[in-house]
Amino acid sequence: MRLIARYDGNDIEVVVERHGRGYRVKLGDRWIEADLADAGPALRSLRLADGTQFSLTHHREGNTHQVTLADSTFYVDITDPLSLKRGRREDEAGGGGVIKALMPGRIVRILVNAGDVVRKGQGVMILEAMKMENEIHAAADGTVDEIFVTAGQTVEAGADLLHVAPL
After folding, report:
1. Whole-prediction pTM value?
2. pLDDT mean across residues, the chain
């Protein structure tokens, strides 16, 4: 999975791949092998391939991630470049339509019901992918007229999630 991390005004390309029970992460030009485990609601345990282990706290609000490691707190905005492309396409196209999964994952929560009126940018469901919860947003103002998935369901990239009819 390719992501863009914005920290301190700089954009850094991030690539995350499954590697055994952990992950390989590329930050800029550097690869890191790591294992990340939940140790509490916001507490994470991070172990690097060389055996170095860290305890950190992680809070997320939208695309902004607050990570506290020892005495330092970092704020990092993480964006999926595919969602940026999708947003540009939706801005150009306008109107409602079928909202599709941009990556494989599991539907954690559905935030709307059929018949609900939604506004552009409003969260409609939560998709978990690679231990991260991603909020899926309405592309335009409209009415949710059909929901194609249920909470707990696993979906592939490109799967139809729900349909928004334009107002």
Report:
1. 0.50
2. 86
